[in-house]
Amino acid sequence: MITIKAALDGEGLLRSCQVSGHAGAGKRGEDIVCAAVSVLTRTALRTLSKKTGVIVRGEAPQRGLFRMETDYSGEGREFLAAAGVFLLEGLSSVAEEFPEFCTMTIDTERRN
Q1: Which residues does residue 71 pair with via DSSP β-bridges, in sequence order?
Q2: Under 8 Å CB-to-CB from 63, ≥6 apart: which residues?
Q3: What are the φ and ψ backbone dihedral angles of 66, each rounded to 5 degrees?
């Protein structure tokens, strides 16, 4: 089972995303669920890391584990907002289509 945990800030901007586990929907190297989640998360990380004004830290220290944290400065806000919506919509679609292999939760950080 793939578990996706995302966190948004109080304005709805992506702050972090963690993906762990293996779907088990197919043989290693042929698992469509793992492939979809991997492509979405890697593409988001690579795209965000190339944008001026977006700060992104990511790692995949082992198979079946991906972490990403984001921040922004002035000009990166709109890009981060759009990329975050795209990523979460894609991951949500995978979780909805394959609920037996992928779950997703999205939390919103509370500000005091």
Answers
A1: 55
A2: 22
A3: -140, 135
- Cα angle, residue 6 at apex, residues 56 and 63 outer, rounded to 5°: 75
Q: Does pTM top 0.90 for this prediction? A: yes
Contacts of 46 (CB under 8 A, 6+ apart): none
The pLDDT tens digits of the residues spanning 49-97 come to: 999 999 999 999 998 999 999 999 988 999 999 999 999 999 999 999 9
Residue type, 77: R
Percentages of the chain per state (helix, strand, coil), in multiples of 5: 40, 35, 30
pLDDT, residue 47, reads: 97
Q: Count of alpha carbons within 13 Å of 9, Cβ hemisphere only?
A: 13
Q: Are 43 and 68 in contact (CB under 8 A)?
A: no
In single-letter form, the type of residue at position 50 comes to K
